[in-house]
Amino acid sequence: MRTIGYALIMVLGLAFQTAGSPGFVLFGTKPELMLLLTLLFAMLLEPGGAACFGFFSGLLQDVLIGRFIGLYAMTYLLMAVLAAFVAKRFYKENFLVRFLIVLGGTLLGQIVYLLGAASFGSAGSWSWVTWRSILGTSALNGLLGVLLYRPLLALHKRLVYIDELLKRTG
Amino acid sequence: MLERLLRWRIPLIIVLIVVLVGTIHYTSVPRGQISKAEALWRDILSPFQWVFRRIEGFFQKQITEFNRWRSVKERNVVLEARLLELEAEVFELRNYRRENEWLREALDFRDEREHDLLVAEVIGRSPSNWESVITVNKGQVHGVASGMAVVTNAGIVGTVINTSSLTSTVLLIVDAQSATGGLVQSSGDLVLIEGGQMDQGSLVAKPLGRDTFVEVGDVIVTSGLSRIYPKNLPIGEVVAVESRQYDLSFAAIVKPFVDFARLEYVLIVMPQEEL
Prior knowledge:
The structure holds two protein chains of two kinds. Chain A contains six helices and no strands. By secondary structure, chain A is mainly alpha-helical.
């Protein structure tokens, strides 16, 4: 049941991220919603579960884009594991810690993706505009992460509760 | 079962990394056709995208209506002035049209056939900031195929790069992988229009000839030399010209006529049937 719940969250997140108009844009950038969900769930799940969530959310995004299939999967997996380990060592209930984990994870995730894409022949320069986009997205994700953490925590608890209920009642 | 998997986790991780590196390498070059799994995933996701698009469209419409209502009086004054300008322009254009018709007849000009255009709604965009693609709600069942041109009445949008049954992915001309043949309307000089500008709102025109001359304000249109875009479709306007390679060459920054941030509907140029 939990797996279905997480899969539905991924599908809806990706559909929302890619729906029609650019939606929520700040300083010319839009949030990396799938990376944001990955990092937030990484704070809520064990490293193994976080890795699975990151891998599949990245893979779904990869398959939709159709270019460098597997690069987002590897990047998000790595970021999920890192975020899960960092969240274990710090007091994640502090909003500043959550903000920094999401900001740092988004920043590092984008850099890893761009480096990976460049190593496989993608054209692109590391100009100021690129950095502005990376930093803008990271800051936006950080802010959204602070706002979305509580609702996602409630959703996660509800999924765990339903899962436990189903197990006990058979 | 789980314990056995955990015991083999290191080899499994290595295999996974090798497989992923293989798929990244395989998909790093443009492909004519996507796999069935990719097509299926896009078809599954498209109804969700359509629903979110409708919801977002509703809210955007309300905001637009509110803003329009606020500025209706000022707009009215501006529009009246614009109407007078346009009436004068229409009068002038009618004269040109009559003159053009007369010249065509005089030169026995063979008119080009009109292209069949298929209207498609934009239902999806790239999930990240690093690709400039859109998804439209017309696919193989509607006759769309890879390589078809996509335009709006403002200018060219991009090329269909792959299709599923119900959707198509369009590579926008502002993407790093896009290159289009262009023509400077005033001089007729050929240029190559490339995307990949990181602000994703502009293009670069590079000269194809040594004597190519471009200046700010020049309009760039499609050259028609490739088989993708019909001739003379507007691309954009030159907003800056920068010297390159010790003043031996230049690159012109072109602002596209199409507003890629607000694309809602596009037209897919269907191939002409051979006579």
